[in-house]
Amino acid sequence: MSGTPASGSVGSLNPQNPASSIPPASNPKNKEIYKYDAPWNIYSLNWSLRQDKRFRLAIGSFIEEYNNKIQIVTLDEDQGEFVAQPAFNHYYPATKVMWMPDPKGNYTDLLATSGDYLRIWKVSENPTKLECTLNNNQSTGFCAPLTSFDWNEMDPTIIGASSVDTTCTIWGLETQQAIGRTRSVNGHVKTQVIAHDKEVYDIAFSRAGGNRDIFASVGADGSVRLFDLRNLLTSTIIYENRNRTPLLRLAWNRQDPNYIATFAMDSKEVTILDLRVLSTPMATLDNHRGYLNGLAWAPHSSCHICTAGEDCLALIWDIQSMPRAIEDPILAYTAAAEINQIQWSALQPDWIAICILFVSLRLRNDEQLVQECRLDRFMNEINTHVAEVFRRRDKSKLQKNISVFTSNYTAPCLIGALSEHHNKHSTLGMEAFSAYVKCAKYAMNEMPNEALYGRIGYLAGLIALSDAGYPVEQETIHLIVENILREGRYLSQKIGKRRGDYEELVQNRPDAPALPPLMFKWHDKFYLGAAHGFAGILLTLLKVHEKLPNALPEGSLEELILPTTKWLCKLQQPSGNWPSSLGESLNRDRLMQWCHGATGIVPLMLRAYKVTGDEEYLISARRGADAIWERGLLTKGCGLCHGSAGSGYALLSVYQNTGDAKYLTMAAAVALWCADYFTHAERTPDRPLSLFEGNSFQ
């Protein structure tokens, strides 16, 4: 999410959500950021669940003294500014604040807070009135500190609280309320369980499926435990992390009761659990560079979750590809300081609130999220165009070119299949998928192996289809990989048998690495780069190993692919660049772009490091990135293939794999360069609107 350098974020109305029937306020749409500066640091916050107060938030302070505050702020929809009610005292910092889940307003307008006690406040009166203080230890009169609590959305008369004394207490609220008549509020202990072996840090009731009796908890023993109020004699440990690191937060998917998210103390990773598969995480979200502080599931979607932490980042993820790896978030927003808490509005799923430690509370209405929420509408508009492109696909050149990057046949098939992979009833998706996989027979014939026109370009499409959930047969991938390796091995052996051939290719260098077990050429040249040479081929083969390891012939990774990758690593020049090809070009250091040079080889070095853990690959990638920074602002347009966008992509890849902010800054500088396209397009590419040469990649 782009925006001002401060913080807070939210999107726009989701046409699929019932809340969209509420007309949006006109003035709030005039802004993207809505800020409230509290007179103290903010630690806790929560959105109102009442339809008539959808822009209302409760916030709690973090003051290291005995005078903390709770305040209620409301966005004035006419003025576009926050209006704050007078704050009221809370003594210790509120570990959590939460409005009663009463969208229809059938109950008294109540707010709960936790800290030294569980307190219930009546907000319908001014000033706010403390209705009751709930203490689970009647013998001493003092309550063990409460770490968190949750209000049961299926039955608002039930609240569960977690405590440092290893217990979870389930409270029953007695509002003595008839519709239209308000009386006092009180509470009693329905049950108390020893939930964990150590402190309990969070508790959450199941958010979907209509089951009010199921709740889960996390604690200092590093476990997630499941409880049923109908049978508290036993609990189910659904997950324990290996190091028994304390788990701090717990969030239950609001649309699918099978999914729970959690993260550990001093952790940069969020773990997604499926209750149907005990003990084994379904996915790990690990793009944060600082420790996590908060997470929130989307109220309107089962596959979106937002995470935030000390790295000042709020990230929105799409997890629908589980159990396949989820590598990157779909949206990211950078705040001005550490994000301490995050809340996703249940009534307005296009609004997210975050609070920033030592700064303020801000809200954001983000147009990017508007587009994300309207994805269905967008897809309906372009499906007609996708179908037309698919119908016009050209089969005439399939015997010479099957790469998805340049083919007039396989590319429309791939786009048609991927654009419809979420629609189980789509005939276009399966028809396009079927047409694509039938092209595998051409990969078995005489065909180049490189990326832009050959087998590797087709193999990359198969991997994309498999990632999207299509039933790609592993045997098909195996046969294509086998063809690639067989030809590479045959060419290497052929060169090795003829005295002087390899020596000529490496220019008789005494320090040249030995002949690798795989050799590839295109148009009689041994290219090293990503477009036509070794880098593109080896990178795709390593992806096959990571995603479908059984598709590789036995022993091929250790005996063929990695030795050839190491050979390419050793051809790196003192400048950090690579030559474009073997032979005379080996002594030249001229091209620095994705198709030829370090820009296309650095991603291979990073992938090899990820697979092997060999530091030599990481050092090589860093050297290559530094060389790209020195020479990567190209004058051939701003495309991927031989433009500056390719340079930015490589620098960003190094940052994503190392976490070194230096490379993020470099990538951002390249992005700014590319943004002013016409100033820096001294040499216009042949296809200025294409993916590899033009604006489409940007």
Automatic annotation (TrEMBL):
<dbReference type="GO" id="GO:0046872">
    <property type="term" value="F:metal ion binding"/>
</dbReference>
<feature type="repeat" description="WD">
    <location>
        <begin position="285"/>
        <end position="327"/>
    </location>
</feature>
<dbReference type="Pfam" id="PF05147">
    <property type="entry name" value="LANC_like"/>
</dbReference>
<dbReference type="InterPro" id="IPR012341">
    <property type="entry name" value="6hp_glycosidase-like_sf"/>
</dbReference>
<dbReference type="InterPro" id="IPR015943">
    <property type="entry name" value="WD40/YVTN_repeat-like_dom_sf"/>
</dbReference>
<protein>
    <recommendedName>
        <fullName>DDB1- and CUL4-associated factor 7</fullName>
    </recommendedName>
</protein>
<keyword id="KW-0963">Cytoplasm</keyword>
<keyword id="KW-0833">Ubl conjugation pathway</keyword>
<keyword id="KW-0677">Repeat</keyword>
<dbReference type="InterPro" id="IPR019775">
    <property type="entry name" value="WD40_repeat_CS"/>
</dbReference>
<dbReference type="InterPro" id="IPR001680">
    <property type="entry name" value="WD40_rpt"/>
</dbReference>
<feature type="binding site">
    <location>
        <position position="595"/>
    </location>
    <ligand>
        <name>Zn(2+)</name>
    </ligand>
</feature>
<comment type="pathway">
    <text>Protein modification; protein ubiquitination.</text>
</comment>
<keyword id="KW-0217">Developmental protein</keyword>
<feature type="compositionally biased region" description="Polar residues">
    <location>
        <begin position="1"/>
        <end position="13"/>
    </location>
</feature>
<dbReference type="GO" id="GO:0005737">
    <property type="term" value="C:cytoplasm"/>
</dbReference>
<keyword id="KW-0479">Metal-binding</keyword>
<keyword id="KW-0862">Zinc</keyword>
<feature type="binding site">
    <location>
        <position position="642"/>
    </location>
    <ligand>
        <name>Zn(2+)</name>
    </ligand>
</feature>
<feature type="region of interest" description="Disordered">
    <location>
        <begin position="1"/>
        <end position="28"/>
    </location>
</feature>
<dbReference type="GO" id="GO:0031179">
    <property type="term" value="P:peptide modification"/>
</dbReference>
<dbReference type="Pfam" id="PF00400">
    <property type="entry name" value="WD40"/>
</dbReference>
<keyword id="KW-0539">Nucleus</keyword>
<comment type="similarity">
    <text>Belongs to the WD repeat DCAF7 family.</text>
</comment>
<dbReference type="InterPro" id="IPR036322">
    <property type="entry name" value="WD40_repeat_dom_sf"/>
</dbReference>
<dbReference type="GO" id="GO:0005975">
    <property type="term" value="P:carbohydrate metabolic process"/>
</dbReference>
<dbReference type="InterPro" id="IPR045159">
    <property type="entry name" value="DCAF7-like"/>
</dbReference>
<feature type="binding site">
    <location>
        <position position="641"/>
    </location>
    <ligand>
        <name>Zn(2+)</name>
    </ligand>
</feature>
<keyword id="KW-0853">WD repeat</keyword>
<feature type="compositionally biased region" description="Low complexity">
    <location>
        <begin position="14"/>
        <end position="28"/>
    </location>
</feature>
<dbReference type="InterPro" id="IPR007822">
    <property type="entry name" value="LANC-like"/>
</dbReference>
<dbReference type="GO" id="GO:0005634">
    <property type="term" value="C:nucleus"/>
</dbReference>
